[in-house]
Amino acid sequence: MNIGRFEIEQLSEGIFEIFEDGLIQKSTLSEIKEESGLPGVKESSHYIGINPLLIRDGKHNVLVDTGLGWGLDHRSSYTDTSNLLTNLDIFGLTPADITHVVLSHLHYDHAAGSTYVDHNTSTQPTMSYANYFLQKKEWYFALEETARGHQRPGAGYQLDELYKLAAEDKLVLITDQQFELLPGIQIIRTGGHTPGHQIVKIQDAGETAYFLGDLIPSEFHLNHYAMRKMDVNAVESKKAKTLILRQALKENAVLLFYHSLHAKAGKLVLNQSKKFALKDIR
Ligand SMILES: [Zn+2]
Q1: Measured in angstroms, how far is the CA atom of residue 18 from the centroid of ligand 1?
Q2: Cross-strand pairs, 172
Q3: Which of 161, 212, 241, 259 could form a disulfide with 48 if both were Cys (CB 3.0 to 4.6 A apart)?
Q4: pLDDT for the residue numbered 35
Q5: What confidence tier does 46 reach under pLDDT thresholds 50, 70, 90?
Q6: Which of 149, 280, 278, 173 is closest to 219 using CA atoms?
Q7: How close is the Cα of 116 to the center of ligand 1, in Å?
Q8: At 43, is the pLDDT very low, low, confident or very high (cuts 50, 70, 90)?
């Protein structure tokens, strides 16, 4: 898909089942069909896709969220998962070609692919030449939660492997609420889901797209304002979500969902009952 001069790809790691305690397990579409009967998938919200985003403009290759990273480690038991390496390969890229990494937040289903364990059992940055952009608030909140041994329902923090990024000075800790990564690529802190949760706005030549992270994980969350127990601050989350959706509607923007199974991207429209809906763009 193109947004102005940017080429945008959703890199899918596949479909996973997520349990209350945060455990994640690989699933296949046939298992989901058996259990829930598509399109009733919406009822079984414990099935999630993992879809990092690749943004290219010919000079820069920006990756937004790094996924679970299964199979990246030396001697990993996950041999058949599609991870960043296999997904980038489709576009003729290697992790070394990535110029910037943006992390919406540090929950492990969004950030674990940022590093891998090499042949010498030493942790290495997966994207060796990139800086990793995240909110300063997110880093310190994740450190605090980890130190307290505190975990909320859903995927939590597993920072062990990310300390290496800090040690190698690869982290860029953003303090601004809005931050221009590159001309046309803006990072916006929304908070809510976590205090330092951020989304990405891509804009060029009158076209706009939003990568929403866990602010709006999938198309099924568009009209869903229930206080989610996964959010650290559900009120802040609701506020940010209302603002962004209003703005996106005005801008005729494409929404990109990280946890969608199928309709991963679409233009926001209002349907007859004034609810948000997605217009397919493919
Ligand atoms: Zn999360």
Answers
A1: 12
A2: 133
A3: 259
A4: 56
A5: confident
A6: 278
A7: 20
A8: very low
- State phi, psi for 104 to the nearest 5 degrees: -60, -40
Domain carrying residue 74:
2-279
Q: Count Cβ atoms below 10 Å from residue 203 Cβ, excluding itself.
A: 18
* Torsion sign, CA atoms 18, 23, 25, 31: negative
Spatial contact of 257 and 3, defined as CB atoms under 8 Å apart: no
Ligand 1 centre to CA of 265 (Å) is 19
Indicate which CATH number applies to the domain containing 217.
3.60.15.10
* Pair type for strands 131-135 and 123-125: unpaired
Q: Which two tokens stand for residue 97?
A: 């070609």
Q: How far is the CA of 120 from the centre of ligand 1 (A)?
A: 31
Question: How does strand 171-174 pair with strand 131-135?
Answer: parallel
Distance 214 CA to ligand 1 centre (A): 5
Rounded to the nearest angstrom, the distance between the alpha carbon of 145 and the centre of ligand 1 is 13
Number of domains in the chain: 1
> How many angstroms separate the CA atoms of 99 and 119, rounded?
24
> Cα angle at 111 between 105 and 113, to 5 degrees?
165
- The Å distance, Cα 260 to ligand 1 centre, comes to 14
Is pLDDT above 60 for 206?
yes
Report CA(5)–ligand 1 centroid distance (Å). 30
HSE of 74, CA atoms in CB hemisphere, 13 A: 8
pLDDT band, very low/low/confident/very high, at 205 (cuts 50, 70, 90):
very high
Q: What is the pLDDT of residues 54-90, one digit of tens each?
A: 999 999 999 999 999 998 998 888 888 889 999 999 9
* 106 Cα to the center of ligand 1, angstroms: 7
Residue 273 CA to residue 257 CA, distance in Å, equals 23
